């Protein structure tokens, strides 16, 4: 059984159906559709593996998962466009940082990386401004909501079930499990109770909550960060050829505001990374006082705020001021005007924070008998979802064979 109908949960179910034919696979999703939150509200970027520490799960599964996702999209007729990306340095200091990104990308097996000077950048993106850039020629975009829907179709084709409208309210042990006679689990939901021998918690923004239902101390707390976008006017969108990114701040797991073409047309600008006031807080008006109180009771959250309050205030200002958002974008494209930015969407990213206030850098899982809790799979989880699914099913096989 899989809790959570996002890309990772569906990829786990899809892989389990392939590896263990004949066994019942059930996905429980609390919303009325799959990919309702992180999976269906992201920028659609297929990440190349450029940014991640060599040897980490993120690096390995992103590069592997990107190839698997490309093949899946081509096999199933889903949009997949290799538009290429430039990571733009706007200062000499940022230009020096490109060397580290280039070395890291090559160590991770990212193909075709090329260092560009200012003239090379202008040839690739005539309206982007910078002193140097790193070209990632195979960077791509897709539609992850459609990918998730197709994952769900494959789960069903392999004999599994995707049950929507089933929010998990309790998770307990049961000696009978699914009737096989061994130790199992009962997952109680708003749609009834379901028995299972093996359970994978892919609840995303609520993964730590579900882990605690299991009596597991996840040692992290999920802190939600909202990313807000503007859409470029058609005139300005036509000036963007591929993906245009800044050099990221190595202190944070966020990549800075950037320009992303969409497979459905147009170009998005963003996102910022502002602390959300609810786990599904897509607007400033979405506030969960009880959830905020629980976060403040967590020492890691308080330490995070003390450590990064200046950056947090800057992100809040960018969220509340269109002019501040424009100023950040104009570092990459100076010709932008205020009227070029149209209201866009938003998404919320689940970021696991340790008790010491550090944002968890790599994918993280916790195991208990018959269960795996997926505690931290932020970006590039969408890109890596098929590879993550395979990794989790391998872990699951080691816990107990079906």
Walkthrough of the structure:
The protein is of the alpha+beta class. It has 3 domains: 1-80 and 139-220 and 362-402, FAD/NAD(P)-binding domain (3-Layer(bba) Sandwich); 85-137, no CATH class; 223-359, D-Amino Acid Oxidase, Chain A, domain 2, CATH 3.30.9. Helices cover 34% and strands 25% of the residues. It is built from 11 helices and 21 strands. It has helices at residues 7-19, 57-75, 92-107, 118-124, 144-157, 207-213, 234-237, 289-296, 299-320, 322-330, 381-399; strands at 2-3, 26-28, 45-46, 80-82, 85-89, 114-117, 132-136, 140-142, 161-163, 168-174, 184-189, 192-196, 199-201, 221-232, 243-246, 258-261, 267-270, 274-275, 341-353, 364-368, 371-376. The strands form 5 sheets. A 6-stranded mixed beta sheet has the order 9-2-1-13-21-20, sandwiched between helices. α1 runs parallel beside α5 and α9 packs across α10 (322-330). The radius of gyration is 21 Å and the shape is globular. The protein starts with a strand and ends with a helix. The relative contact order is 0.19. Residues 177-182 have low confidence and may be disordered.
């Amino acid at each position: 059984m899989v809790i959570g109908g996002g890309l990772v949960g569906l990829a786990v179910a899809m892989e389990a159906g392939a590896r263990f034919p004949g066994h019942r696979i059930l996905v429980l999703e609390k919303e009325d559709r799959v990919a309702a939150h992180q999976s269906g509200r992201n920028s659609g970027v297929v990440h190349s593996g450029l940014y991640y520490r060599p040897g980490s799960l993120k690096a390995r599964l992103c590069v592997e998962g990107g190839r698997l996702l490309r093949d899946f999209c081509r096999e199933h007729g889903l949009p997949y466009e290799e538009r290429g990306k430039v990571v733009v340095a706007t200062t000499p200091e940022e230009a020096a940082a490109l060397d580290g990104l280039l070395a890291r990308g090559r160590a991770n097996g990212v193909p075709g990386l090329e260092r560009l000077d200012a003239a090379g950048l202008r040839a690739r993106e005539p309206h982007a401004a910078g002193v140097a850039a790193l070209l990632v020629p195979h960077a791509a975009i897709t539609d992850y909501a459609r990918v998730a829907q197709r994952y769900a179709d494959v789960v069903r084709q392999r004999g599994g079930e995707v049950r929507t409208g089933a929010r998990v309210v309790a998770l307990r042990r049961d000696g009978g499990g699914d009737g096989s006679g061994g130790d199992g689990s009962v997952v109680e939901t708003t749609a009834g109770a379901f028995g299972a021998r093996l359970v994978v918690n892919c609840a995303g923004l609520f993964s730590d909550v579900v882990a605690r239902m299991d009596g597991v101390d996840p040692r992290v707390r999920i802190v939600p960060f909202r990313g807000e976008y503007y859409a470029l006017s058609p005139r300005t969108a036509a000036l963007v050829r591929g993906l245009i990114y800044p050099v990221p701040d190595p202190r944070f797991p966020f990549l800075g505001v950037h320009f992303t073409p969409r497979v459905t047309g147009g170009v998005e600008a963003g996102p910022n990374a502002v602390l959300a006031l609810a786990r599904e807080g897509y607007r400033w008006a979405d506030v969960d006082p009880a959830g905020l109180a629980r976060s403040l009771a967590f020492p890691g959250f308080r330490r995070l705020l003390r450590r990064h309050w200046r950056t947090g205030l800057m992100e809040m200002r960018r969220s509340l001021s269109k002019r501040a958002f424009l100023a950040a974008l104009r570092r990459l494209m100076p010709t932008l005007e205020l009227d070029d930015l149209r209201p866009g969407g938003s998404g919320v990213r689940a970021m696991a924070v340790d008790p010491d206030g550090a944002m968890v850098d790599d994918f993280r899982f916790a195991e208990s008998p018959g269960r795996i809790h997926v505690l931290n799979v932020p970006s590039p989880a969408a890109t890596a979802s098929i590879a993550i699914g395979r990794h989790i099913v391998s872990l699951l096989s080691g816990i107990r064979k079906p």
